[in-house]
Design brief:
The complex is a heterodimer.
Chain A: H1 3-47, H2 49-54, E1 58-59, E2 64-65, H3 68-99, H4 102-117, H5 120-146, H6 166-190, H7 194-202, H8 207-236, H9 239-245, H10 262-269, H11 276-312
Helix pairs in contact in A: 1-11, 3-6, 3-8, 3-10, 4-6, 5-6, 5-9, 6-8, 6-9, 7-8, 8-11, 9-10, 10-11
Chain B: H1 2-21, E1 25-30, H2 35-49, E2 52-57, H3 60-68, E3 74-77, H4 83-88, E4 91-106, E5 116-117, H5 119-127, H6 136-139, E6 153-157, H7 162-174, H8 176-181, E7 194-196, H9 198-208, E8 212-217, H10 218-223, E9 227-228, E10 230-232, E11 238-239, H11 243-252, E12 277-285, H12 289-305, H13 307-312, H14 320-332
Parallel strand pairs in B: 1-2, 1-3, 5-10, 6-7, 6-8
Antiparallel strand pairs in B: 3-12, 4-8, 4-9, 4-12, 10-11
């Protein structure tokens, strides 16, 4: 067989294999969506879209289901987790890229990546047995006595601290998403042209000014991308939160109350959902999460692409 | 080419091999509560007969669906199906083993077995009507116990579970307000309290939270050294939880083979019967006689040889009278 021809046929087989591989991914996603819609069809017909989303009722005995409490819990824990994680993650990234001595860079980087590799069930067990009692005994009473005594914000810290609440769940979530935000921010910071930074130092700016006026503006879009990816992770996180959130379907103003997120509801109730409408409503919740995550990841991709285009010029 | 050929040969060999072995495997799926004892029995059964049992603990809901679609030899459910549901899907059912549920409290100075409760007091606490430990409904039952004026922290299960189904059926049977306001099921809308995931979650919260009350399977109360309470049963007798009280519940309860044993083992009429117990059930397909017979053989063996193993794992073996009823039931369907 002539060499050229043989190479062509190998090439052809190779491209077919790769095309099939990527086609399978698209088919899988479509397949999952179709199955979700099929399984939840009963609930979609029964409750409709708007009514399901705004209803706060979740009563398996009376078979009356609504997603509002789960969407609320998902939203609050995710936003609060980002609120805690972003400043810490950006601080870590600034330290690693700009401040820390070179011999420490590697160990800190590895430590952050290891944090991302811990399975979420371990965070869950740690949260239940270690963090929740600490939150209930020390941190939450302290918060109640300080911030809780203020007007308006005080509403967020009412009630008896039990450690099983949105605050504890958010703290665990924030620990889980710090590595994502930190390592993507670090990579974006590293993209800042050294020439610009050195010029700034040459005209006498301080480290703080370099970070504030040069590094951060340069890497803004990369950081947004990192944050959105963490958001996606926080939205979908299940086991770590399932242990410390209590799965109470309620909307409350206090962060010291138990709540439910979509994933927590699924993890807790799926196995024992014995009625058709119940199971179908759980699938319906899954679709809502699917769409929410899809939007978030699309946004992340958008920011990352924009950042890439900006720096590749 | 040679490599490819031997690969295909290997695949074919593996498939024929597993096909040949499939006959000796019994596939079951369902409730997670009895999974440890089914697996322990399966281990001994395998040693005795060579038959393998592959039991997937995917939850009762999953077990019911799997046997409805006939993908397993038997399904397992913590909740009995009603005769109508069974007829609809052409199934039969029988109880396999039991468990007891106890109430546990965390109060300073109160040790296991020192406090007495009844369904009225428990119902009031779980409805949020009794807010403090010195509520008259609790005080009247415990003249000798020093009850503080602290708030009751109610702990319940956050996940759907057979334990919750047993517990809510117990409350619903005695307390009409519970029946109308909350109802009974594997997961219900609890009016008050915090939710723990699994028996271990509830045990952990009861341990941690001051002045808490919770319900757990008996084994968890023992393992975690929780202060379980005594309960006053419908016959009016105050009992401590234990194998005898659980067994008496099953012996005195009216399990009816005509209704496929559809019965919640709560508030049993016996004088010495513990009021919150539950059997866990096996579901069989009427149209699959061969696999039914294999399953029945396994449970018949377990009924004969597995009682001590069950008690080791804090499960309650069925009383002899009930086992005989089940064997007659099997005969009736021609699978014994």
């Amino acid at each position: 067989m002539p060499i050229i021809e043989r190479r062509n046929s190998v090439d052809f087989v190779f491209s077919v294999i790769t095309a099939v591989a990527s086609g399978v991914v698209v088919l899988l996603i479509l397949g999952i969506l179709i199955v979700l819609i099929h399984e939840s069809w009963l609930a979609i017909n029964h409750f409709g879209v708007i009514r399901f989303i705004i209803s706060t009722d979740w009563d398996p005995v009376k078979e009356s289901f609504g997603a509002a409490t789960a969407i609320f819990g998902t939203f609050v824990t995710t936003v609060l987790a980002l609120f805690i994680a972003i400043p810490i993650a950006i601080g870590i990234a600034i330290f690693v890229t700009e401040i820390c001595p070179p011999f420490l860079k590697e160990p800190i980087g590895i430590a952050i990546e290891l944090l991302a590799a811990i399975p979420s069930i371990i965070y869950g067990m740690w949260g239940l047995f270690t963090l929740a009692p600490i939150m209930a005994k020390y941190i939450e009473p302290a918060l109640q006595h300080s911030i809780g005594a203020l007007p308006v914000v005080g509403i967020l810290f009412q009630g008896t601290p039990m450690g099983i609440d949105m605050l504890t769940a958010s703290v665990i979530l924030s620990i889980m998403i710090i590595p994502f935000t930190a390592s993507i921010s670090r990579d974006s910071f590293n993209l800042t042209p050294a020439v610009v930074k050195e010029s700034a130092y040459a005209i006498g700016t301080t480290k703080w000014e370099v970070v504030k006026n040069i590094v951060l503006p340069y890497s803004k879009l990369g950081i947004y991308g990192g944050i959105t990816l963490s958001l996606g992770r926080a939205l979908g996180e299940t086991m770590a939160v399932a242990f410390v959130l209590g799965n109470n379907h309620q909307i409350t103003s206090s962060l010291l109350n138990a709540a439910a997120t979509i994933t927590v509801t699924l993890a807790n109730e799926f196995t024992e959902a014995d009625k058709d409408l119940y199971l179908s409503s759980l699938f319906y919740l899954a679709i809502i999460l699917f769409i929410m995550s899809f939007i978030v990841l699309a946004l992340a991709k958008f920011f990352l692409l924009k950042a890439e285009r900006k720096y590749s010029r | 080419m040679k490599v490819l050929f031997s690969f295909i040969l290997a695949v074919v060999c593996i498939f024929t091999f597993s096909a040949a072995h499939a006959e000796d495997i019994l596939n079951g799926a369902g409730a997670s509560f009895p999974a440890p004892i089914y697996q322990a029995w399966a281990y001994d059964y395998n040693k005795a007969t060579g038959m393998k049992l592959n039991y997937q603990s995917i939850g009762s809901g999953g077990g019911i669906r799997q046997i409805e679609s006939r993908t397993v030899d038997f399904g397992a459910s913590d909740a009995p199906l009603t005769p109508e549901e069974l007829d609809k899907n052409n199934l039969i059912q029988f109880p396999a083993v039991m468990g007891g549920v106890v109430l546990v409290v965390n109060l300073p100075g109160v040790k296991a077995g020192q406090m007495t409760l009844d369904s009225n007091a428990v119902c009031k606490a779980y409805l949020g009507d009794a807010k403090y430990w010195d509520d008259p409904s609790i005080k009247a039952l415990n003249p000798g116990v020093n009850l503080p004026h602290t708030e009751i922290t109610v702990v319940h299960r956050s996940d759907g579970s057979g334990t919750t189904a047993i517990f809510t059926n117990y409350l619903g049977g005695q307390c009409s307000e519970w029946k109308t306001r909350v109802g009974a099921g594997t997961s219900v809308k609890f009016p008050v309290g915090i939710g723990g995931k699994g028996n271990e979650g509830v045990s952990n919260y009861v341990k941690q939270a001051p002045a808490a009350i919770g319900y757990v399977e008996y084994a968890y109360a023992l393992q975690n050294n929780l202060a379980y309470t005594l309960l006053k049963n419908p016959a009016g007798k105050v009992l401590a939880p234990g194998f005898d009280a659980f067994k008496e519940a099953a012996a005195s309860a009216d399990f009816d083979p005509k209704k496929h044993f559809d019965l919640w083992l709560v508030n049993a009429p016996g004088k010495d019967a513990w009021p919150i117990a539950g059997a866990t059930f096996i579901l069989l397909a009427r149209d699959k006689k061969d696999s039914d017979m294999k399953t029945v053989k396994f449970y018949d063996w377990a009924f004969k040889n597995g009682d001590s193993k069950a008690e080791d794992l804090t499960y309650v073996p069925l009383p002899k009278s009930l086992k005989d009823k089940i064997r007659a039931y099997w005969k009736e369907y021609g699978i014994y």
